[in-house]
Amino acid sequence: MQLPVKFGLQKKESHTGWEPHKDSDLSMRTVSTPSPALILPPHSSPGVLNGSSTSSSTFGTETIAMVHTPPTSLTHPQRSLRQPRDQQGAPIDILPDHAFLQIFTHLATNQLCQCARVCRRWYNLAWDPRLWRTIRLMGDVLHVDRALRVLTRRLCQDTPNVCLTLETVVVSGCRRLTDRGLYTVAQCCPELRHLEMAGCYNVSNEAVFEVVSRCPNLEHLDVSGCSKVTCISLTQDVSVKLSPLHGQQISIRYLDMTDCFALEDEGLHTIAAHCTQLTHLYLRRCVRLTDEGLRFLVIYCPSVRELSVSDCRFISDFGLREIAKLEGRLRYLSIAHCGRITDVGVRYIAKYCNRLRYLNARGCEGLTDHGVEHLAKNCLKLKSLDIGKCPLVSDAGLEQLALNSFNLKRLSLKSCESITGRGLQVVAANCFDLQLLNVQDCDVPLEALRFVKRHCKRCVIEHTNPAFF
């Protein structure tokens, strides 16, 4: 295969900015492709493609973005078949275009950029709009702001300033992402539906507001670990133009704000008022939230199906009373390590949320056999239950669970010091569909583990008994 011809723009140290290389064709700038050097960490090699290493240059400790024109080589499979064997192209060139597109759908963003530099045919295929519904960038030292700017500029080639095909952007773990990168996404990607930027702690509220205001179809937003994000709202300019019910204009259904430590009740109030279509909300380790914030959530977002307030230490039984107002819509609830929750709050959930499928109450030390009994008798569709580190739960609670929860598939009893072999045997004899049982750090005899294995053939047992294998 003929090696690609490389063109580029090189950055000088002078203040004149970007100047054309002597071999560059200025007329080809609008159809250039980002170099893999732009979207790979500067310390890692982008790899060698067809014997020629990909081009990158460094300025100080940073990788300089090289923008390349499409290769001038052109492969003609039909013509190559009539040529002598020693002059024919590579066998892969015989594949039809649709086969290449199918292969390219499995490549990451940086790999697609590498393929675009092989030859002109690959260039045209690699930039097929159907392959660019998603941009996925990863790396601690990645210049993600610059990468987003260059990629969106290339994708806007046919529709100036707008990427009509891009629906998903994943930049999780890109710690160098800043508001500048998010502004690029907001301005160029009006059809964005899915945005993940977990761990990007340099982004602020203003940039997030810009994205949700300019991307009306955004449904999935992951800002977990973005410690500066304390709210989700429309920009002030957009809010003024809308009616008092403008909160309904934000179409976010999935919101993950795990580890957003600065989130408070007032911020959750604003989120609930603007994101009324929420169905999945995760607030793990949002340690400043209280029961009052959950009251706002239930008022504005009655469609919530999955909710996590794990490790929110100020959430108590009053908060569970508010959550119980979601009634049969609630399917998933995590209240792990909420030390103020007792049987009273669990009783509210059991009574009103009778379609609950998943409950994580690990570390709720106020939960007893009475709370487990209420769950077992009311939540008959319960499939997964975690009551690990609940020292007041004993065999009596397990017996009630076994006699009522026939659909139970996953049960965690880790570090439940009051559990014995008798309780496990009752569970195994009634819950035939059990697939996972965690009894780590529980004082259960070997015979009980063997009994579980005989009656629950498909069950994986997690244990700390060295004699059982």
TrEMBL record:
Q: Which GO terms describe its biological process?
A: SCF-dependent proteasomal ubiquitin-dependent protein catabolic process
Report the residue ranges that make up the F-box domain in this protein: 89-135
Name a GO CC annotation attached to this entry: SCF ubiquitin ligase complex
Q: What is its main location?
A: cytoplasm
| Alphabetical list of Gene3D superfamilies matching this protein | 1.20.1280.50, Ribonuclease Inhibitor (3.80.10.10)
Q: Does the keyword Repeat apply?
A: yes
Q: Where is this region: Disordered?
A: 1-29
Q: Where in the cell is it found?
A: Cytoplasm, Cytoskeleton, Microtubule organizing center, Centrosome
Q: Cross-referenced SMART domains, in alphabetical order?
A: FBOX (SM00256), LRR_CC (SM00367)
Q: In which pathway does it act?
A: Protein modification; protein ubiquitination
Name the source's superkingdom. Eukaryota
By sequence similarity, the record places it as follows: Belongs to the FBXL7 family.
Q: What is this protein called?
A: F-box/LRR-repeat protein 7
**Source organism (scientific name):** Cyprinus carpio carpio
Q: What is the lineage of its organism?
A: Eukaryota, Metazoa, Chordata, Craniata, Vertebrata
